[in-house]
Amino acid sequence: MITKLKRIDWTLFTILLIMMAISLVVIYSATHSSSRFGGSTSKMAFYYLAGFIVFFVAAFVDYRLWIKYAKYIYIGGIALLLLVMIIGQTLNNAQGWLSIGGLSLQPAELFKLVLIISLSTLLAAKKKIKLLFWRDITPLLAVTFVPFALVMVQNDLGNALSYLIIMVALLWIGNIKYTQAIIFTTIAVAMVVVGIRSYVAYHDQIKTYLNDIKRDHWMERIDPWLMPDEATAKAIYHTRNAKLAIASGGLSGEGFMKGSSVQAERVPLTYSDSIFVVVAEEFGFVGAAVLLLLYFTLIHRLVLVSLECRERAGPYLIIGIVAMLLYQIFENIGMFIGLMPLTGITLPFISFGGTSLVMNMACMGLVMSIRIHNQLDTEEVSLEAGSRYTLN
């Protein structure tokens, strides 16, 4: 235990502590005057405590154990997604929460890690051979699109898209043929371009269809991004006020607990999805830049661990985690500055949310497990080689 503890990446651990401090400060600023969310800071502190426990447990357990039982982990994850469709609670138009002992669990969040483990296991078994479409890529697509479809039915677009991002990232480093990569990229770009043009051209028909299937709130998220002039006042309210709040922060911000838009509650969900707006308005460009620098350093440390890894499954696991984090960071910040449509994606380690935080901390613990156990393996190989040399 002590040997493993010494091999923890304490730089990464320190970054997580700083993230915790930022999260608690910003959540307190966003909720201190709210009668409904006033206790969010203490709840987040509890979630962080649970998260660090999960971090160390995951770090000390050999990550290859998760690879060994990946099939059963995947089946369990699918079972949770099916269960939430039957008895799940609805929040913000998405039926994605299970209530367990007074605590809310979001299986779609947990399944990100499940998917990373499952895809990494399949790719590691290929042993550096070029991926063939029907033999290798098709099973990966099936493993991804089953949970994607289930989460889309739950009306959780943000988490569903994260599954596709994870799959694409792992395929990219999984020895996919260049011709296949070019074909898939061309198809994806064409689908995006055709989809955007079709949305603009057939806006009224799409609106009628979405109303019929009770998905009209999707229009309220896409219109402010693609057609702001056509968006209703209700649809544009969130993103418009968020942009104004970010702009008002200027260089150094309006000050802690002094954000005019945040404190007046003109921006919805400032304690969770919109928490970046609090950082930008109250701490300005400097505060936002510091937060982004922390994310950059975190990602850099993860990539370094993957480069040091001798075993094939480790890098796949880490790159899947990196892809997940990058997507969430880019989507969460991008949707408030007009780069991305509005979705229910949290800002990793900062936004309020127990399931999201504990899952992200488990991912960091998994990375530490890869680092610890690969270093131990390297030392054992070195000792064996030294012993043989001494005997000879």
From TrEMBL:
Chief localization: membrane
Coiled-coil parts of chain: none
Protein name, per record: Cell cycle protein
Transmembrane domains' residue ranges: 12-30, 45-65, 72-91, 103-125, 132-151, 157-174, 181-202, 283-304, 316-339, 345-367
Organism: Paenibacillus bovis
Record key words, sorted: Cell shape, Membrane, Transmembrane, Transmembrane helix
Its membrane topology: Multi-pass membrane protein
Highest taxon listed in the record's lineage: Bacteria
